[in-house]
Amino acid sequence: MGSCGTGGCSGCGTKHDGPQAPEGDMIARGELDAAIPHEKQEYRPLLPRRAPPYKVHWNWEIMLPCNYRCSYCVVHNEAAQYLIQGVSEWRKVWERIFKLYGCCQVRFAGGEPTIYPHFIDLVGMILEMHTVDITTNLSFDVEEWIKKVPSQGIAISGSLHLEHQKPEDFLKKLLILRNKGNQLISASLVAYPTYLDRIDAIRAMFEKEQVLFKIIPFNGVYQGKRYPGAYTDDERILLGMQVQRSQDELGKTLNKQWQDYANAKPNDKNFMGMPCHMGEMYAKIYSDGTVRRCCHTGVDILGHITDPNLKLFEGPEPCTVMSCSCWKPMVAGKYEEKVHMLWQSANHPVYPEKAPNA
Predict the structure, then answer these.
(1) Does position 159 have pLDDT exceeding 70, yes or no?
(2) What is the pTM of this model?
C-alpha cells in the first residue's frame, strides 16, 4: 500500500480525483514544455532557503504498483506507468538538485517504493548528497538492506497492513533495523473501521519498544460511507484517546495533527490566494517524473524531474485550491511554529542542516 504523498501517511486510503496514471502525464499529452514556468528566467539559488523547514522536501511517488493488495487501498495501480532510469542517470538529476538547493529531504512513496528496479542502489546514491525517508510496507529483505544501505541520514516509516502482516513480526523488522544503526524508525496504521478495536493494544506494543507510532485516519469509502467524515462520535473519541495515551511527545503531536486534519471542515482549510511555501520548500514528483507544486490534484506544474531547467519558486506563491488536502500545510504565517516538528528529517552526516541565518 502506498502513500498519498502528504507526508508520513502511507496507507491513508486517500481518494484521489480521477485516474492515477494520467495525473502527471504531461509528456503523453504534449503539455510539458508549456508548463515549465522558469525555463527562461534567471535564477539565483538560495542556500539555505529562507523559509522553514529550510531544507527542501521532495515527495517522490516513484511508482504506483504494489506487492500488497489491501482491501482499503485506492492508491496502488498495477497499470500505471513509471519512469525507469539507471542509477547513473538518476545521479545526474540529484546532483543538479544538490547544486541548486543543497542537501534536501527525499521522501519515497508509492505504491511500494522498494520494488522499484535497483532501489537499494538508488537510495545509497541519493544518501551521498541528501537525506531520505522511505514509506514502506517492510516487505523487503531486512538483512540485505542492512548490508547495502547506510544507516545515517535515513528515516524508515513502516506502514503496517494487518491483512498481510502480524504486528509482532512487523515490529521485529523495525527493531532489527534500529539495532543496526537506523535510529529514525516509525510505524503507522490506518484507522480502518474494522481495526479500531485493535489500535490500543498495537499502539502500546510499539510504544513499549519506544517506536514512534502514527495513527492515520482512514480516507475512503467503507460500507457506502465516506471517511473520515463517517467516523461516529464514539469512534472519534476513541481515536482522540489514543492520541492522548501516546507516551511519545512527537507521536502525540503528529497524531493530534492527523486528528485535526480528519475533523476539519472544508472551509477550515480554504487558503485560496494566501501565500504558501509549497512549490518553494516542497514539491511532489509523480511516477512519470512530472513535478507539481504540492499533492493536491491540478495544482501548478513546475516541470519534469529530468528537465535541466526545472526550478522551484523563489518565495511563497498564492494557493490555488479551495480546500487544502494536506495534513501539514505550509501557508505562510500560519504553520511556521509547527514546521520543525511536522517536517522533521534525518540529519546528513556530511551536510548537516544549516541554521536559518547561516
Answers:
(1) yes
(2) 0.83
